[in-house]
Amino acid sequence: MQPSGALALLLIATLACSSVGATNSTGGLPIVMWHGMGGFKKYLESNLEVYVKSLEIGNSIVTDYKSGYLIHPNKQVEDVCQQLANDPKLSDGYNAIGFSQGGQFLRAVAQRCPTPRMNNLITLGGQHQGVFGLPDCPSLSSKTCEYFRQLLNLAAYTGWVQDYLVQATYWHDPLNEGAYRESSTFLADINNEKTINETYISNLQQLNKFIMVKFTKDKIVQPIESQWFGYYAPGQDKEVQTLQDSDLFIKNRLGLQEMQSRNQLVFLEYPGNHLQFTKEWFQKNVFPFL
Fold first, then answer.
1. Which candidate among 21, 35, 80, 117 keeps its CA 20 to 30 Å from the CA of 98?
2. Hey, how many other C-beta atoms are within 10 angstroms of the C-beta on 175?
3. What is the pLDDT of residue 35?
4. For the segment 72-88, what is each residue's pLDDT rounded down to a tens digit?
5. Is the dihedral of CA 268, 271, 274, 280 positive or negative?
6. What residues are labeled active site?
């Protein structure tokens, strides 16, 4: 199975394992997906026999699609938190799967909205340290892609672009870390780079497992290592640091040191392009957490 670029609502542009079929440890909790598609929802329901909620923003497919580009993540997260709180089928908790930017959006849900409780968070191709660069723009016209490229490269941290373009809210310029921390209206906040929000830390640590899937041939996420919380070392855009070498980890801004010591962090990788994985791989590597 190869999910389409639309299922991810991309980033760019318009931006431990057991055998399959083994009894899982979560007792068949419901699943919440962000930026999934109908076929994948049915695939999970038929194979796992659990309730699957595919999140939508707004009252139509068109509105939901536009939200991936034009509705600020803070507003989207607020909407989703309300949806989850109002769904009685999730009252005993749920597992979450975020595709592409849905990964960091669901992490924001975990940090900001602890009720109902998120058990395991699985992010596929998420951009946890943001992005810097637009190497590809699937599902967009070349003209539209180039327009967004120019906006992000020249004006990502201006107020109107932060308000207008979702991808600007997780645009992370390593050549200008000060502007990023000061002006990023989403990512810098959920990564505790403006101030330390202890509630974010304690809520994130309530996860049973935080599973991050990196696509090693990704042509959408730049740098690829952002999918595992790695990023460019500050002041340049060539050398990439791992999570463990970053200030985020060393200064323990999100409590990830403790999570790693308690084996709550799981790092998986797939040798393919953005969100291009097989059904067999997903069953073997991700099903055990569902």
1. 21
2. 12
3. 83
4. 999 999 999 999 999 99
5. negative
6. 100, 218, 274
Length of the chain: 290
Mean pLDDT of the chain: 86
CA distances (Å), 216 to each of 126, 156, 171, in order? 13, 27, 21
- How far apart are alpha carbons 47 and 32 in whole angstroms? 15
Strand partners of residue 240: 232
Residue by residue, what is the 3-state secondary structure of the chain? CCCCHHHHCCCCCCCCCCCCCCCCCCCCCCEEEECCCHHHHHHHHHHHCCCEEECCCCCCHHHHHHHHHHCCHHHHHHHHHHHHHCCHHHCCCEEEEEECHHHHHHHHHHHHCCCCCEEEEEEECCCCCCECCCCCCCCCCHHHHHHHHHHHHHHCCCHHHHHHCHHHHHECCCCCHHHHHHHCCCHHHHCCCCCCCHHHHHHHCCCCEEEEEEECCCCCCCCHHHHHCCEECCCCCCCEECHHHCHHHHCCCCCHHHHHHCCCEEEEEECCCCCCCCHHHHHHHCHHHC
Say how far apart CA 238 and CA 241 lie, in whole Å: 10
What whole-number distance in Å separates Cα of residue 23 and Cα of residue 28?
A: 9
Between CA 18 and CA 15 the distance in angstroms is 35
Instruction: Name the phi and psi angles at 210, rounded to 5.
Output: -115, 105
- Predicted confidence (pLDDT) at residue 63 exceeds the cutoff of 80: no
Report pLDDT digits (tens) over 89-106: 999 999 999 999 999 999
The answer to whether 114 and 90 have CB atoms below 8 angstroms apart is no
User: How many other CB atoms sit within 10 Å of the CB of residue 251?
Assistant: 12
